[in-house]
Amino acid sequence: MKKALITGITGQDGSYLSELLLNKGYKVYGLKRRTSTPNLENIKSVLDKIDLIPGDVLDLTSLINAINIAKPDEVYNLAAQSFVTDSWAQPIYTGQSTSIGAINMLEAIRLTNPDIRFYQASSSEMFGKVIETPQSETTPFYPRSPYAVAKVYAHWITVNYRESYDMYTCSGILFNHESPRRGIDFVTRKVTDAVARIKLGLQKELRLGNLDAKRDWGYAGDYVKAMWLMLQQTEPNDYVIASGETHSVKELVEIAFDYVGLDWNKYVVQDPKLIRPAEVDLLLGDPQKAQKKLNWKPDVSFEQLIKMMIDSDIKKVKSNI
Ligand code: NAP
Ligand code: GDD
């Protein structure tokens, strides 16, 4: 039986990846940092099937301990301070968890068992103020936030461990991916939750920042399949994972309100306080390498994704009334 250790297991991607690996017959271990109140909502359906190991990616000892307990064949490093906005408020913590966290995990592997295969959760935010469109594996990076800068370090250290130590390390450059389990701060979930509340008469307005920003959005359930595929190849490599379509925040809002029969103009208020110090205006990925080499393609479209999230949020909000 194959064994996997996932950092960031309580997050959106960690939960979908756990389900995928369990379905493939893996024994799944998750690194879980201590929180003062429980945050196991995303993984409640798999809690009795996985083993949680206490630890933090900033604490190398806890990572070595986790590897000694799990003895994994594969490690998926998903842990990070992942909200771009907060990376300006907490730049040093973001740098530590998002970049030093990755090298800590790589060192833990190198020192215990360098044959373990390693996946690093890299990000399209690294393209930032984009040099070319669409963005592929060869597009130069131009990071535009403390988060994105930290991800560039984690990306290159992953490449360097492959080239220096001949370790099987992969970096997945994933474009935005969402789901009903997306954190409430991110724009898709903020919109779908607000649409559900407004439809049910519990909220009157939705305050947003830049409506013109464009993102290449996909479904998290599709994207975790690509993470697994990267670790099943004969040679390690880096891949862009994207839908190959881009949409503005305004289009997202229009589709979401339209789905419940409301006019977004009556509810959306632009709030200058929500504009970022530096913006990433346009992301559009070129997923051809993943399509050809991994035989990966997404199944859920942008519209299906938004509708799935609204349906889920309406259910959640109703169950709390
Ligand atoms: P998420 O929902 O924010 O989950 C982040 C996870 O990291 C949580 O489980 C969190 O634990 C954990 N974590 C944070 N700091 C930690 C620390 N110091 N030690 C151990 N665990 C820590 O993020 P996601 O959307 O699932 O994304 C997964 C990864 O992919 C992240 O690295 C993100 O930056 C990257 N990524 C995401 C996207 C996207 O569109 N979703 C795109 C590209 C890359 P708590 O629950 O305790 O907070
Ligand atoms: N969060 C948020 N809230 N974003 C808003 C809002 C708002 O009220 N109004 C407009 N936006 C715009 C942001 O300015 C940004 O251009 C876009 O919506 C998307 O913002 P987020 O959903 O917060 O995601 P992100 O693109 O900054 O980052 C996500 O994707 C990255 C991959 O490209 C995160 O998941 C990162 O961790 C990930 O690496």
Explain what the structure shows:
The protein has 321 residues and is of the alpha/beta class. The protein has 2 domains: 198 residues, Rossmann fold; 95 residues, UDP-galactose 4-epimerase, domain 1. The chain has 10 helices and 13 strands. The strands form 4 sheets. The protein has a 7-stranded parallel β-sheet with strand order 3-2-1-4-5-6-11, with helices on both faces. A two-stranded parallel ribbon has the order 7-10. It has a two-stranded parallel ribbon with strand order 8-13. It is globular, with a radius of gyration of 19 Å. The structure holds NADP nicotinamide-adenine-dinucleotide phosphate and guanosine-5'-diphosphate-alpha-D-mannose. NADP nicotinamide-adenine-dinucleotide phosphate binds next to helix 1, helix 4 and strand 5.
Task: Describe the SSE topology.
Layout: E1 3-7, H1 12-23, E2 27-32, E3 51-54, H2 60-70, E4 74-77, H3 86-89, H4 91-112, E5 117-123, H5 146-165, E6 169-174, E7 177-178, H6 187-199, E8 206-208, E9 214-215, E10 218-219, H7 220-230, E11 238-241, E12 247-248, H8 249-259, E13 268-270, H9 288-294, H10 302-320
Parallel strand pairs: 1-2, 1-4, 2-3, 4-5, 5-6, 6-11, 7-10, 8-13
Antiparallel strand pairs: 9-12
This protein binds NADP nicotinamide-adenine-dinucleotide phosphate and guanosine-5'-diphosphate-alpha-D-mannose.
Residues 7-14, 31, 33, 35, 39, 56-58, 78-82, 97, 101, 121, 123, 174, 176-177, 183 line the site of NADP nicotinamide-adenine-dinucleotide phosphate.
